[in-house]
Amino acid sequence: MIQRPAPGSSRSPREAPEGHVARGDAGQPVRAPRPSDPAGAQPLSGGKHAGEAGLPLSVPTRKNDLLAEIAARALWIRRRSFQMVFEAQQGHPGGDFSAADILATLFFGVLRYDPARPLAPGRDRFVMSKGHCTGAFYSVLAASGYFPEAELSTYMRPQSRLNGHPNRNYLPGVETNTGPLGHGLPVATGIAIAGQIDGADYRTFVLTGDGELQEGSNWEAALTAGHRKLERLSLIIDRNRLQQGARTEDTASLDPLDDKWRAFGWHVEVVDGHDPAQLLAVLGADPQGRGKPLCVIANTIKGRGVSFMQDQVSWHHGVPNREQFEQAMTELV
Fold first, then answer.
1. pLDDT digits over 75-114, tens only?
2. Is residue 101 situated within a structural domain?
């Protein structure tokens, strides 16, 4: 069945983590399901790449410190995805890093899912609209138990299931194929409409980049979702302000982004996208009675965590050489 908070946890499912701060009246977070038994997550296995700077493939579950667990998972996602990009010499590591905390919060703090039954009707749905950031996405799926972590080493290889863009026909945990930007929110809106018609209690989440909001299909979906008051639909915007080749505001200005979404009938929260407490507070809040879809503008930094990558547009799809890889691993601790 769909997994729920571990029995015997010291914190009730709707008890907020101590000291959380978030903008807006978001309510309190719901603790995530666990892909493992109540005793804690199973350690992730995996061999080191020769010359690698101590990649920690085991992340302990701390039942009494969910925020610390999410932070540890996000660090692991950054390190593991960067190893994948280095080995494949392909990928989009800047966006992987800006989205890591968001993905860790969703999969280890919010979403209901059962990796043994990836199509269970009651599962929450997650759509990775920024489908080019597969290093981070595949890493969190493996860490959540959808497929063996060792398979991450096949990233981008011929005949691998781990393509440059996620394919639901190959991998469990992928709700829809993405890659062509601007498609994730329309699909997620359709999923949420189906749930509304059926009276289902699952929630639908979608993560977009900010550059892809320049695609008009997003705004058609936004209009529809606002009109239908899809309160069980949540959009998270990875607002790192960089897209391929330039800054978003130099390409096609998005600001004031919060006012745009409010004008379409959405409830808007603006948070630090690298702060699990803020993310957990707004994404874990019970949507019942809100009467609007939720838009979370998560302010992030492209390449977060590595000095030579942070806020550098060249790392949208840059790949590291050996020296850069080893330096990044020494910084990602």
1. 999 999 999 999 999 888 889 999 999 999 999 999 999 9
2. yes
What's the total number of domains in the chain?
A: 1
pLDDT number for residue 48: 36
Question: Cα separation of 53 and 56, whole Å?
Answer: 9
What are the distances in angstroms from CA 205 to CA 159, 202, 256, 312?
29, 10, 23, 28
Model confidence at 277: pLDDT above 90:
yes
Place 60 in a pLDDT band, splitting at 50, 70 and 90.
very low
- Please answer whether residues 238 and 300 qualify as being in contact, where contact means their C-beta atoms are separated by less than 8 angstroms: yes
Instruction: Please state, in angstroms and rounded to a whole number, the distance separating the CA atoms of residues 239 and 166.
Output: 21
Q: Is the dihedral of CA 194, 199, 200, 205 positive or negative?
A: positive
Domain presence at residue 280: yes
Any domain includes 14: no
Residue corresponding to tokens 């280095």: 86
Distance, CA of 16 to CA of 53 (rounded, Å): 36
Report the amino acid identity of residue 265.
G
| CATH code of the domain covering residue 281 | 3.40.50.970
pLDDT, position 182: 87
Rounded CA separation 94/90 (Å) = 12
Record the pTM.
Answer: 0.82
Say how far apart CA 104 and CA 277 lie, in whole Å: 12
Weakest mean pLDDT among 64-68, 212-216, 282-286, 293-297: 64-68
- Cα separation, 26 vs 71, in Å, equals 21
Domain range spanning residue 87?
Answer: 66-331
